[in-house]
Amino acid sequence: MLGARCLLRALRSCSSAPCPRHTPSAKLSVRDALGAQNTSGERVKVQGWIRSVRSQKEVLFLHINDGSSLESLQVVADSSFDSKELAFGSSVEVQGQLVKSPSKRQNVELKAEKIEVVGNCDAKDSGFVHIHTPIITSNDCEGAGELFQVEPSSKVKVPEENFFNVPAFLTVSGQLHLEVMSGAFTQVFTFGPTFRAENSQSRRHLAEFYMVEAEISFVESLQDLMQVMERLFKTATMLVLSNCPEDVELCHRFIAPGQKDRLEHMLKNNFLIISYTEAVEILKQASQNFTFTPEWGVDLHTEHEKFLVKHCGNIPVFVVNYPLALKPFYMRDNEDGPQHTVAAVDLLVPGVGELFGGSLREERYHFLEQRLARSGLTEAYQWYLDLRRFGSVPHGGFGMGFERYLQCILGIDNIKDVIPFPRFTHSCLL
Amino acid sequence: MLGARCLLRALRSCSSAPCPRHTPSAKLSVRDALGAQNTSGERVKVQGWIRSVRSQKEVLFLHINDGSSLESLQVVADSSFDSKELAFGSSVEVQGQLVKSPSKRQNVELKAEKIEVVGNCDAKDSGFVHIHTPIITSNDCEGAGELFQVEPSSKVKVPEENFFNVPAFLTVSGQLHLEVMSGAFTQVFTFGPTFRAENSQSRRHLAEFYMVEAEISFVESLQDLMQVMERLFKTATMLVLSNCPEDVELCHRFIAPGQKDRLEHMLKNNFLIISYTEAVEILKQASQNFTFTPEWGVDLHTEHEKFLVKHCGNIPVFVVNYPLALKPFYMRDNEDGPQHTVAAVDLLVPGVGELFGGSLREERYHFLEQRLARSGLTEAYQWYLDLRRFGSVPHGGFGMGFERYLQCILGIDNIKDVIPFPRFTHSCLL
């Protein structure tokens, strides 16, 4: 999360005036630098993000990645270059000589003559606050009805009808609780188990699964949210690739051949954005026969999601602005028409389909009041409505299914293979 | 956890030969060094653990703590002292001159002339593996019966009697799942929510609370376990104190005056150890009238626990070797008698009572088989018994209630005040 946010905040703050001491350097991607044949001191320029910093007495080692390759380029610099700004996540421009590396771990390294920090990444004052949202709740965030109810087992003697006086359920999302907290901490996230009593045997569903959820105050556009989502996906993936290369290699080699290239393709391209309305048009014009006929006002099915990602060249694609009638009461009304939509966004990825879901939240008291009234939820969500009475701010957030994320980056077909103790209908082993 | 374990593993590896270049230095505690009046270059020696390392171009800053004071002593050294061994958690002996600090953040600092690493703390190869144990389970780890049962809410249509085919509950402990994992990863831990359907309105109980639980293979004595527990408590507390001093100060100043001293007292003393049998003797000889009469074979109540801690001078105390009849089937039989005990351990702390509970696990197939048979659990725990058939090892573990830990270090009287969304009988707000 930190990485995502600080990358998002990065500002291009330095001039890009050419280095006066040398002839202009050839600009190379990390991939091209790594593959260079001529390593007899050619002067080059590489731009990218710092993936690791190792500071020794006289030498500073940086690993730079620009998304053109899963592998990073090692930069070797005199320790006089060392500064706080050369931190994980900072974007830099490095000029120097491409030389043969004395180490066996790489063929080529870049001997730095000049390092410019393009965008700072100070993770210290830009943190998301980690909140543990509750597992047992009296809310039903999604309004979906696929809830597990919680009651003391028959062995426990409690005189009242309900242990908690009210019906209590296992959480389907920490969103509403995060919204409470974002009203004080501005940017918050949770990482914890969530539950669906879905009678499904699919390769994408579990009864108990983990979600990363984030909520951000003072966010006014889906664009801002999507930027955080894309950065989160890319930064987390880069971190996994650089911290556990052997584990990833194992999956890519023995379970999902070709996944390495597919992942690289996702990382090096900017994610795409289409509207729900455009998505339906694409599906209608498709030559493929779908089990569920695509139509405006009807939810997208997995078969549709997978088609859309393929249609987009296997680059992850954000679908935005869904029909109001399909979405829960808390999503922000776009006040458009006649096809009435809300500011919702899903991220679809190759192989998996929906990975993230998010939205701007309805922060306007009267809009929310009417939506609740129409759904008959006014009484149950009075406390939530009250959040809009005292210091309400435009805000939004999203959730990412953690096991689906693992499926996506590792190329694992069945979600039950990325969690140690999977729970699904008919199965709760151990 | 890392800190706890690496401190545990620390080996006194260096000689303590006197430094030849200077006259013998006076040995000072950190507390005495901080309070020193004579700062005109007196030569001193300080021993303790490194709490932080800040490496700059020409200077190296260390903060050293030895438990004699909540505050750490700043050590300023030439960057030539810098080495990988000077890492968080390493124990060191520093000789040098005590001088007035130029910074306003402290009065005194130690100008290092010699730094000896007494015990290395290489956190890289000594990690506990973080496991997310499941929330929904078909086990009842404690055998206590105070379980929440989980079923799809009436709105969900599932034809079978049970969604999972078997009755399913909210976890009361991740221990059994951790035991599975410790059979492959040696040292594992989990940090997650656990549940009790306890009809209690006490200031120490929640229906949903967090536990840190650890499980360690190849552990053969309670002594080893207790060392990890004590180090975990002390290292975590030191980290909280050094990373969030303002938050702690807020609680100590406005909610729990005197707590700072009480905490310091806990940190600077070695925790005590008494047996359950000794504990009962102490309680029997006490002049205090207890609501529950202490007797061998009966569980200790909170009033007993609090008395024992006071009796021990408000130093945390481990109580070991509880009656076999009081404890679950998985705890290791001490094969003693006639008062038959198991290798269980609880840590009692001031203000709270029981904070940790742990035990050696019964790793011997035939012992476990008989215990299960006697409890009528053979069928339900066949999978657990099987763990003793294939590569069984002596092992043990413990759990620490996270909210009680916060109560203990912050001096918060009511457990409902250290969790954002407390759940207890009659209450499941939001």
Automatic annotation (TrEMBL), chains A, B:
Pfam family, one: tRNA-synt_2
Superkingdom of origin organism: Eukaryota
Lineage: Eukaryota, Metazoa, Chordata, Craniata, Vertebrata
Family of the protein in this entry: Belongs to the class-II aminoacyl-tRNA synthetase family.
Enzymatic class: ligase
Catalytic reaction annotation: tRNA(Asn) + L-asparagine + ATP = L-asparaginyl-tRNA(Asn) + AMP + diphosphate + H(+)
GO molecular-function terms, A-Z: asparagine-tRNA ligase activity; ATP binding; nucleic acid binding
Domain Aminoacyl-transfer RNA synthetases class-II family profile: 124-420
Keyword Metal-binding: no
GO biological process: asparaginyl-tRNA aminoacylation
Signal peptide residue numbers: none
Presence of the UniProt keyword Ligase in the record: yes
Taxonomic source organism: Equus asinus
Protein name: asparagine--tRNA ligase
SUPFAM superfamilies: Class II aaRS and biotin synthetases, Nucleic acid-binding proteins
Entry keywords, A to Z: Aminoacyl-tRNA synthetase, ATP-binding, Ligase, Mitochondrion, Nucleotide-binding, Protein biosynthesis, Transit peptide
EC number: 6.1.1.22
A single GO cellular-component term on record: mitochondrion
PROSITE patterns reported in the protein's UniProt record: AA_TRNA_LIGASE_II
Gene behind this protein: NARS2
UniProt-annotated location(s): Mitochondrion
